[in-house]
Amino acid sequence: MSARPYRSSILVPFLLATLLFLIAIRTSAQVATGDIVGSVTDSSNAVVPGAKVTETNLGTGLTYVSNATGDGNYLITQLPAGHYRITAEKEGFKTWTRPDVTLSIGDRYRADARLEVGELSQTVEVQAENAQLQTDSAQVASLVDERQVQDLPLNGRNFVQLTQLVPGATDYTAGSFSTGNAVDDRRRPSAVSVNGFNGAQNNFMIDGMDNNERFIATVTVKPSIEAIAEIKVITNTFSAELSRANGAGISFITKGGTNEFHGSLFEFFRNQALDARQPILLPTQPKAPYRQNNFGASAGGPIKKNRTFFFADWESYLVGQGQVNQLTVPLASEIAGNFNTVGLGANPAIVTPVYDPKTTQTVPTSVSSSGAIRSQFPDNQIPASRFDPAAVNVLALYPAPQLPGPTLNYVSAPSRTQNDGTMDTRIDHRFSDKSNFYARYSYNHTTTTTPHNLPTAPNGIDPVGNGGGYTDQANQAFQINEVYTLNPSTIVVVQASYTRWALSSLQTNFGKNVATQLGIPGVNVDSDSTGIAAITLGTANGVQSLTEGGFQPNLDYNNTFQENGSFQFTRGAHSMKTGLSIIRRQVNETQS
Fold this sequence. Notes:
The chain is mainly beta. The protein has two domains: 31-136, Immunoglobulin-like; 142-324 and 413-508 and 548-591, Beta Barrel (Maltoporin, Chain A), CATH 2.40.170. It has five helices and 32 strands. The protein has helices at 11-21, 146-151, 332-335, 389-395, 514-518; strands at 25-26, 34-42, 52-57, 63-67, 73-79, 82-89, 95-103, 108-110, 113-115, 123-125, 140-144, 169-171, 192-194, 203-206, 209-210, 212-213, 218-219, 228-236, 249-254, 262-271, 290-304, 308-322, 325-327, 361-362, 372-373, 410-412, 415-432, 435-450, 469-487, 490-506, 554-571, 574-591. The strands form eight sheets. It has a ten-stranded antiparallel β-sheet, with no helix packed on it. Strands 4-3-6-7-10 form a five-stranded mixed β-sheet, with no helix packed on it. The longest helix has 11 residues, at 11-21. The relative contact order is 0.12.
């Protein structure tokens, strides 16, 4: 099936009408930035209009300025997460300062300044811890901060696992296409359920922009842990920017550089030498392979101090892991047509009769409701002359049993391999005191070879037994962001992004006319139907079926274009925000 972008002749009039009738609303918590609000009063609790309030980012040295309004209130919005020094000053008063305030994404931090009479050169320093209660926002959310992102142990350094730490969140791999095993997404699991909602009902955002694949509803770009500054999981009282989220709004922001150079170099590994031997392996079989290497590096710092900064990271995740299976394959006697063996049927204590479908004899209706019954093959042996040539070819795909008995008589440990590469780059630049800009590019490339339960047959055909094959995924995202201060009480934010999801998931026998080779006509009619057909042996002892697994080849290509614009302003004690977001999606999906 395929889908094309929705276009409508009413789109332009609708957008014009939206622009004309947008209603300014009370500013709610930001999606990728934070706010600092407060009031400025003197020692008698009288307001101090016109006081200059300055927030200085301690990492980059960048300053953000606002003036208290006539009623003494101030607001500085669109602040990147980080540590800030806040100062308030006015002629005739001592300078008031809070030396270090931690601001996280979505925070609306209140810092009320009380000025004392004196000289500007004199300073009143106020020590304060981070506000635990966001009194200026009704949003219900949980934060995973930079220290948790960096220090908490993660299997495979998969940041999505961090979202499961928040109250109400749990793993959702059991009911999702994002398990890492589905042909739609072979990467490490990306599924999380919040407040009991389906794992496909979340809204993933990166730096405040859309980051959703729209066919199976998973995350598009997965940055390296080295690139993530903070993660916020918003579970209730969503702002307009989050739009469609029913389960959770999962917003993560990437790191930017600072005035000091920082970097990292890392390697994590696992090896089968450190693992116990799987108990179901045969004595002659070696320990199932398991080789996992996760390595990379990051660096960030100033290009020009207090002006231009960079951050970049690169990470590789390489894994080869044996998939241990205990299966049932046909006995040599079964392949020869001899079913005169106890335990081949539904009752393990008796020989199950095999009847000749070409014979019938009339019997009393008290014996058979149809009045007819087939004759049993002599000695329960199907003559070789009755074998279908295609059936003979199919049975030749099975390996010989390794263990005695009609069931669970074969153990395999094929290796699943994956090469997952991640790269992120970001440039932050201040053009002027009024203009702050950044651009980010992220790229993920994952190749996965998923094995089948059974080994390749002597004729070169893979008999499969589960949905294996080769998958190539290349996901990328580019974003630019501009915050422009028209005046201390008015800010314009303009954002644009492009994300692409490109997945090609092919069955092991793709391009091979296996069904035709086996003597089964009418199956391999084009490249999309190459491979083996789904074949289930009609025995009661659970012989492993043969199939490519279904839904392959799977070709999924998503392009998402987004443009955002918002206008924020302060008038008296009121802060307002209005804006427009346009998302155009191209979703093209082809499956067998």
